[in-house]
Design brief:
homodimer, 415 residues, alpha/beta, seven-stranded mixed sheet, two-stranded parallel sheet
């Protein structure tokens, strides 16, 4: 009897796991270090969890009044409301005018998946997306799968060692009409008021659809409002947009899929139409989003005492990261490392550019087993008392040994 | 300045929520009843939760050794292993031969979404799917979205009042070569050994790809092995197939997305290839599945004492449903309702056909506010001491008032 095997001709897929992490895992060197984790790490080298989360988790599991029924497809209503108020501010014009809503998604990948499926159906002309380089690996694939051409951009100037507003304006000037632009937090990109005006005006006139990615509000400056200033600009200018809001990293609930696809529309009627279409898409994707993480976060956001504890925990984390950056800078200076290292402490958040060229990065990876992405952007919370000396000495060595070659050689000119 | 509104032309989507539930919700009648919930209900009218789940949830939240890091894209390994052993039996040929695996998904919709995406890419010839009618509303949309033509089938004979093996064989005989066949549990369909042989042979020779849907193992007969007998047949015959395994309903963890897309291949090499492709797809869908529910279930399945408690709780639920069915049958007899009602107790599980025609169902919905799907298949766990008299009297009335018209008129011949 003939048999069909659907599986017979299926090839082994290439692992999409970043090749850096793969190489790191395969490395047998005992003191190897990985400085590119996505999440905030503790001094002990574990993913950070806000203490108030543990307490709330226990309280919830002891509450006999709770039920464990399926959530509606749109998710936990109170979670969405509290999270939107957190993201945009309680008094946001969009909230007051009832033109912002959200769908509770399985993490930020789920939010992008849902948003991209919507764009495929309702924004058929857009077939090009520009993604900020740090997020390209994570979210680019989702756009690519539905037929988008994906380009990445960076606003880091490796010569000036800063996030350059001119580069940002240049990028937006050059990208084609009608495409999708995925933007992260650009808090370190010091746009002047006229720079902001120019940015807004270009996005409007070129009919670019903004898709924001806010993966860790509160972990940049510890000021929750400051961290989402960019959204407030866009809201005040009457833009419609999507935003992926993740609450995994700023609460330390990594394993529960606590994301929201935020929709800001120009009026309530359009919002309801968009949400109704998203509901249909979410029904096919997972039907009901997971509850535990959303329930914990809602309990915290809606209780002033717990909210205070959470904010305090963010403050401590951010202060700790700043302290680490100060120490790295200071140690590099004490080691007599050529170059200026002020850019390290001028950047906000867990992740920042070291300002190394590709030769120096390669030296650190190959010779010192310190795993750093090619662009030199690392997670500073991976540096702690146990490894700071080894890391700064490694950096110093890398810079000294490659001295003479330009500090931040563009890749194209690699000798 | 011209503004593009992507949202402007987006229409309001039709609610996909079953129109029956919608009508029920809009009904103001105080004694309205809904007998078509998806999940097993308690006598008090709440979704059932196994007591051992609550206990385990509390234990887990007090365990300081646990971390809350992102799960791998494939999910919690121990959860998948324990669930596969539950589904197929520890000594299953496929497990021993290392040719079965699974991906932890966000519920059964997630499992279907993932499986369908795979089939779209790797089984390009298949563009037709046959889905058992009770699951069409839930899963049909997912196939439809990627371009499948969806047909439904039923194996319930409204005249003989049973799941008819001949109908099943007929369906499979008539469906076209190379399509996908979504099958549920056919435990009440009494296939003879030669019937089984014929079924297998047709599926093989017509190169039909089987996609099983096992939404509530243990809630049919309370015998976990008996409830998945159909899978064991297919494994023993060397088939490759997909199976959506949901653990929401049999543990009472509805809000956590505890599903698995099970892959049975003909050998380990093909299995690994298929799993690697599924990993890529899951990465784009949600990247990391939710943990809490999987963690609770794994703790129960891997601890003999807890496992015993869970099995006992299943036994009690199933006995309770059988008792309800007995009572319904008995009350209908005492009320002198015309017709034979033995088919009610001859069906396994929470859901079963009442054996009413469309006129009778319409009478119950319109006149008695008892909401029943058109095919007369209800969730018997929705019947309890508080509503059984009203329901059975309603059924009796419906049958008496429509007497003379044929008991189970096919829809086409509706007068």
């Amino acid at each position: 009897m003939s048999t069909l095997s659907v599986f017979m001709d299926v090839p082994l897929a290439h692992k999409l796991e970043g090749s850096l992490l793969k190489t790191y895992k395969q490395d047998d060197y005992p003191n190897k270090m990985f400085l590119a984790y996505r999440v905030c790490m503790t001094n002990e080298g574990h993913p950070w969890v806000s203490l108030v989360v543990q307490k709330t988790r226990l309280q919830i599991s002891q509450d006999p009044s709770l039920n464990y029924e399926y959530l509606p497809t749109m998710g936990l209503k109170s979670f969405i409301q509290a999270s939107l108020a957190l993201l945009l501010g309680k008094n946001s014009q969009a909230i007051v005018e009832n033109r912002v809503g959200g769908v509770h998604t399985v993490g930020d990948s789920g939010a992008f998946q849902l948003g991209v499926q919507f764009l495929r159906t309702w924004h058929k002309d857009a077939r090009i997306v520009y993604i900020i380089s740090s997020q390209k690996e994570l979210h680019g694939l989702i756009f690519q799968d539905v037929g988008f051409t994906v380009y990445e951009y960076s606003i880091w100037d490796p010569k000036k060692l800063c996030m350059d507003p001119d580069i940002l304006l240049n990028v937006v000037e050059q990208i084609p009409h009608g495409c999708v632009l995925v933007m992260g937090n650009i808090i370190d990109c010091k746009l002047t008021p006229s720079g902001w005006a120019k940015l807004m005006s270009m996005i409007k006139s070129k009919q670019i659809f903004p898709f924001f990615d806010i993966p860790c509000q509160g972990l940049y400056t510890s000021d929750l409002e400051e961290d989402t200033r960019i959204l407030q600009y866009f809201v005040s200018q009457g833009f419609e947009f999507f935003c992926s809001q993740s609450l995994s990293k700023n609460f330390g609930i990594y394993d529960e899929g606590v994301g929201i696809l935020v929709v800001v529309a120009v009026n309530n009627q359009q919002l309801l139409c968009v949400l109704s279409q998203l509901e249909g898409l979410a029904q096919a994707l997972w039907l009901n989003p997971p509850n535990t993480g959303a329930r914990i976060i809602t309990s915290i956001l809606c209780n002033p005492a717990l909210l205070g504890e959470w904010k305090q925990s963010l403050k401590e984390v951010v202060e700790n990261i700043m302290l680490t950056k100060e120490k790295v800078k200071e140690k590099l200076r004490l080691l007599g490392t050529p170059g200026s290292w002020g850019h390290i402490t001028e950047q906000s958040g867990t992740h920042g550019y070291l300002g190394l060229n590709s030769q120096q990065v390669e030296y650190l990876v190959r010779k010192k087993h310190i795993y750093i992405p090619k662009n030199g952007q690392i997670n500073f919370s991976c540096i702690n008392a146990n490894n700071i000396n080894y890391i700064t000495e490694g950096i110093s060595e890398a810079v000294l040994l490659t001295e003479g070659s330009e500090m931040c050689l563009p890749k194209e000119k690699k000798p």
